[in-house]
Amino acid sequence: MARLLHIDSSPMGDMSVSRGLAAAFRARWEEELPTGTVVYRDVCADPLPLLDRDAIMTFYMPEEARTQAQAEAARYRTALAEELLSADAVLVSAPMHNWTIPAHLKAWLDQVLIDGVTLVQPGETHPLAGRPATVVLAYGGGYTPDAPLAGWDHVEPYLRTVFAGALQMELSVITAQLTLVNEPPELAELARKSRREAEAAIEERARKVAAQLAG
Ligand SMILES: Cc1cc2nc3c(=O)[nH]c(=O)nc-3n(C[C@H](O)[C@H](O)[C@H](O)COP(=O)(O)O)c2cc1C
């Protein structure tokens, strides 16, 4: 049975564009693959703790030397890692906050990325290699290559490094840009176009991922 790990990270609830797009993906995926299961994590409703010294050091010491706090941190992080590694597909939605990902999502990544467990050495094949990851983003401004702030986007390049680079997943990034722009009319039209294109891309990607996992 195919398992989708779905993670939302916008604090904006039902006002969130990225959550809305991810929900559309999930609805289509569930319709196309009714036998599939979804593991859902809302990192805003249930925030993950920031990494502390115990959570880091626990993986660099013999198990029997761990304090209770270190053992608990190891159990917590290992469970998150198992949740990720058992996913046949991953869906992550995120807003741009101050040109990068929100702290809630970074906290999940910091907890779940563990040397030798969810991170492999260069040249090694990752257990998630080739599995589909879909990253759905919403930006208030515009960061296309021709935009004045093109180089300020530290969301997509960073998440590409994580999901396509470190985790070696087959990655598709779908972004609605200019979500906060209502004027001038030319920019408002670009905003509507970006949203329409993102919605169409979501439909196509959800069908593709479902078909891949069904077959
Ligand atoms: C705290 C905060 C910081 C933001 N920083 C940026 C930014 O650096 N660049 C940008 O284009 N939009 C920025 N925005 C606007 C959001 O990217 C935009 O509202 C987007 O739609 C958020 O995704 P969401 O609708 O899924 O929450 C920011 C919004 C908030 C609340």
From TrEMBL:
Per the record's keyword annotation, is Oxidoreductase included, yes or no?
Answer: yes
Every Flavodoxin-like fold domain range: 3-176
State how the cofactor is bound. Answer: Binds 1 FMN per subunit.
Cofactor(s) needed by this chain: FMN
Residues in a coiled coil are none
Q: Supply one GO molecular-function term.
A: oxidoreductase activity, acting on NAD(P)H as acceptor
Output the superkingdom of the source species.
Bacteria
Binding of FMN: at which residues? Answer: 10, 16-18
**Enzyme Commission number:** 1.6.5.-, 1.7.1.17
- What reaction gets catalysed by this protein? N,N-dimethyl-1,4-phenylenediamine + anthranilate + 2 NAD(+) = 2-(4-dimethylaminophenyl)diazenylbenzoate + 2 NADH + 2 H(+); 2 a quinone + NADH + H(+) = 2 a 1,4-benzosemiquinone + NAD(+)
> Which InterPro entries does this UniProt record tie to the protein?
Flavodoxin_fold, Flavoprotein-like_sf, FMN-dep_NADH:Q_OxRdtase_AzoR1, NADH:quinone_OxRdtase_FMN_depd
> Which Pfam families does this one have?
Flavodoxin_2
Top-level EC class, please?
oxidoreductase
User: Is the Glycoprotein keyword given for this protein?
Assistant: no
* Alphabetic keyword roster: Flavoprotein, FMN, NAD, Oxidoreductase
What function is annotated for this protein? Answer: Quinone reductase that provides resistance to thiol-specific stress caused by electrophilic quinones. Also exhibits azoreductase activity. Catalyzes the reductive cleavage of the azo bond in aromatic azo compounds to the corresponding amines.
* PANTHER family for this protein: FMN-DEPENDENT NADH-AZOREDUCTASE 1, FMN-DEPENDENT NADH:QUINONE OXIDOREDUCTASE
Q: How does this polypeptide assemble, per the annotation?
A: Homodimer.
Family label: Belongs to the azoreductase type 1 family.
* Protein known as: FMN dependent NADH:quinone oxidoreductase
What organism is recorded for this protein? Thermomonospora curvata (strain ATCC 19995 / DSM 43183 / JCM 3096 / KCTC 9072 / NBRC 15933 / NCIMB 10081 / Henssen B9)
